[in-house]
Specification:
There is one protein chain. The chain is about 60% helix and about 0% strand. By secondary structure, it is mostly helical. The radius of gyration is 18 Å and the shape is globular.
Length: about 260
């Protein structure tokens, strides 16, 4: 799928989690719901770090473009080193390493560790990166028309404000993990969710997605999971724009209403 659809699906997924936790009697504080939705929306773009033309490659100027090139080469190298006898030869790394459950879990765990041990500046860094990505995905038309600097300033201001709100007692810095020194440990959860939702979205397209790597299926270690081919669509097609994106908006609204106990 394209960037805007990925971001919408990430936000909707976290809002759905918020509704589920509220129904289970463990409602999220509203700052956790909002911040988690933005982080998940941003994280839903991150697996495309292996694609030099993806939305994320433009998000941070030369830095993100260079990083995408490095991740593409790394993913291609991992693919060549681990492919099974049934896996085809490839010329690039797109939809390989960064489109797997293992990558999602490792990135989320790394963010949680950074937030817990890195202090306030690590938290601000995580929030800044994901707010910028969320703006690029959810407000992509406005982001394209404005300068990168304005988007970065918006991300920095948003990160500073959100960290200040979360730091207040009862607002969620210690949500889910309340032990001493475990503040912000939950930040990895929306990152994992966003990455996995991205992979599921790509699995619905023509090429499928090797979500289960490194678990082999038959003769393939990079098996492209997806529904029957008749049910798949091309990225950017009318199915994505006219069906899935409106559905994500509706589901996100329902999730938010359930999480905030409006329904």
């Amino acid at each position: 799928m394209m960037g805007p659809a990925h971001s919408l699906s990430g936000a909707a997924a976290w809002l759905g989690v918020g509704a589920a936790t509220a129904a289970a009697g463990h409602a999220m504080p509203w700052p956790v719901l909002v911040v988690g939705a933005l982080i998940s929306a941003g994280a839903a773009l991150a697996p495309d770090l292996d694609h030099k033309s993806a939305t994320i490659s433009r998000a941070f100027g030369p830095v993100s473009r260079a990083l995408c090139g490095i991740v593409d080469d790394l993913s291609h190298a991992v693919y060549k080193a681990t492919r099974g006898p049934g896996d085809p030869r490839r010329n690039g790394g797109h939809r390989t390493l960064t489109h797997t459950w293992l990558w999602a879990v490792l990135i989320g765990a790394g963010a949680s560790a950074a937030a817990m041990f890195g202090g306030r500046w690590a938290v601000l860094g995580i929030l800044f990166v994901h707010v910028v990505l969320a703006v690029e995905g959810l407000l992509w038309r406005a982001a394209r028309m404005s300068s990168d600097v304005l988007v970065w300033l918006l991300g920095a201001a948003g990160a500073w404000i959100m960290a200040g709100v979360l730091d207040k007692p009862g607002n969620g810095s210690d949500w889910l993990f309340s032990g001493s020194g475990q503040e912000y440990l939950w930040l990895g959860l929306p990152i994992v969710l966003g990455a996995l939702v991205h992979d599921i979205g790509d699995a619905l397209t023509v090429s499928g997605c090797p979500i289960l790597w490194p678990i082999p299926l038959g003769r393939k270690r990079w098996y492209p999971l997806g529904p029957p081919k008749a049910m798949r669509f091309r990225a950017g097609s009318w199915v994505e724009l006219k069906v899935l994106m409106p559905a994500f908006m509706v589901l996100g609204g329902i999730g938010a209403a359930g999480a905030l106990d409006f329904i």
